[in-house]
Design goal:
This protein has about 140 residues and is α+β, with helices and mostly antiparallel strands. It contains 3 helices and 6 strands; from the N terminus they run βββαββαβα. The strands form 2 sheets. A 4-stranded antiparallel β-sheet has the order 4-5-3-6, covered by helices on one side. Strands 1-2 form a two-stranded antiparallel sheet. Strand 4 and strand 5 form a beta hairpin. It is elongated, with a radius of gyration of 18 Å. It comes from Pseudonocardia alaniniphila.
Length: about 140
């Protein structure tokens, strides 16, 4: 585990869960300029707040964004992702009419797929060894 300052607590648990999320635009179109990315970060921070998720880091380029989130165990990553993509797509379309040209076919800004990877903690081999050592026959 990491530094104990990074451990969050819930009603019945202590946790330190981080995920790296990557969303790409539909057809990998180069859609975003700096003003879009700046507003998208604000929107995604608000969505994360609603889920009691901390958006630790956000960055993006013209056709994709990266997020590092710290989330409680009660949050299903798939539900968080659906909300992040849905709300950001809808709000950006409302606030930036210039993006409508990228919605022409599917009325969606994001690809249907995404990447989610766990982040942090010791390497898997060390955790496997630690767990194996916990069971000692008497």
């Amino acid at each position: 585990m990491g530094d104990t300052d990074d451990i969050r607590t819930g009603r019945h648990c202590a946790f330190e869960l981080h995920a790296h999320l990557v969303f790409i635009t539909k057809y990998r179109h180069r859609v975003f300029a700096d003003q879009h990315l700046k507003r998208m970060e604000e929107i995604m921070r608000a969505v994360c707040d609603d889920f009691e998720v901390e958006l630790v880091e956000f960055t993006g380029e013209a056709n994709h964004v990266h997020l590092l989130v710290n989330f409680p165990p009660k949050v299903a990553i798939s539900k968080l992702v659906n909300s992040l993509k849905g709300v950001s797509s809808r709000r950006l379309r409302q606030e930036f009419p210039d993006l409508i040209q990228h919605y022409w076919r599917a009325q969606r800004l994001w690809s249907g797929s995404y990447f989610a990877g766990s982040v942090g903690g010791p390497p898997l081999s060390i955790m496997q060894h630690y767990i194996e050592q916990q069971h000692r026959p008497v």
